[in-house]
Amino acid sequence: MTAKYQLALIETVLLLLTIFVWFCSKQWRFYKWAVFLYVAFIFACILTGISHSPLHSGRQVWVLIFPMTSYLMLGRLAGIWLNSICLCLVSSILYLRFYEYFGKELISVVINLSFAYAFLWGLTHSAERVHKKMLYALKKIASTDPLTGLANRRNISQCYQHQLQQAVGEKDALALVLIDLDNFKKINDTHGHDVGDAVLVDFAERLRAHVDNNDQLFRLGGEEFCVLMPAAKSKDWALMFCQYVYDTPLRLNDIKIHYTVSIGVSCSHEEGDDFKHLYTIADQRLYKAKSLGRNCVVLKG
Question: SUPFAM superfamilies recorded for this chain (predicted)?
C-alpha cells in the first residue's frame, strides 16, 4: 500500500474515532481511556502526516486540530505540555525534511505555525470559559424561582446533603422547616393575582431578612416554602418567625393584607437524615398545623 493510501486510511480511522468519542457517553467506564487513546492517535497522525506529506499539503491542517483537541479532551495543564511537545517535534521534522530545499523561508512557516497554535489555544480557552459561564447561567435560571428569586425545588436534595455535612461538621443536626401561607387562595380571589404575587415576593423578602444564608431558602411551589437550618435554633426560629408574620401585615398601596403562616419542623437527629423521610415528616406536621387552626408551629408528632 502506497504512502498516499496509508495516509487516507489513517484519516478515515481518525474521522471514525472522532465521531465515536464525541458521541460516547461520559459515564462509560472506559471513557477516559478512549479519550487518551484518541488524543494519542491524533498526535501520531500529526507526526506521520508531517513526516510523509509535502510541505504545502492539505494534510498539514491536522496540526492545527491538536491544540483544541488536547485542551477540550484532557484539560489545560495536560494540553499545554502536549502542545509544547507536539510543536517542538513538528518543527524538528519540518527542519530535517525541508530546510535543505526552502532554507530560511521555512522559519516563517514555523513562526506562523507557532502563532496559529497560540491563537487556537487562546480561542479554545475563551470558548471554554464562555461555555462554562453559559452553563452556569442556565443552571441558575433552571434552579431559581422567577417570581421570588429563591431557589426552587430542583436542587433541594443536593443542597440538603451539603447543609447536612456542614451541620455534622459543627456537631449539630439539620432541620427542615416547611412553611405554607394560610388562606392564600382567598387573597388571590379577593385582591387578584397581582396582589397575590406581591404577597409571595414580600414573604420571600421576610425570609431573606431572617435567615443568614439565602442558599438555605427554597420556594417549593405555590405558597409553600422551605428553610434548611441548624436544628439547635430551628424551633425557636420557627416560633418567632410565625409570630413575626402575624404581627406585621403587608401594606400595599392602600391595601392592608394581614396573612399568617403554618409551619412544620423535622430534624435529622430525631427523624433520621434521609431527605425524603425528613420532608414527609415536616409535611405531615405542616398539615397538622393547618388542622389545628393555622397560624401555628408543629414541632412534634
Answer: Nucleotide cyclase
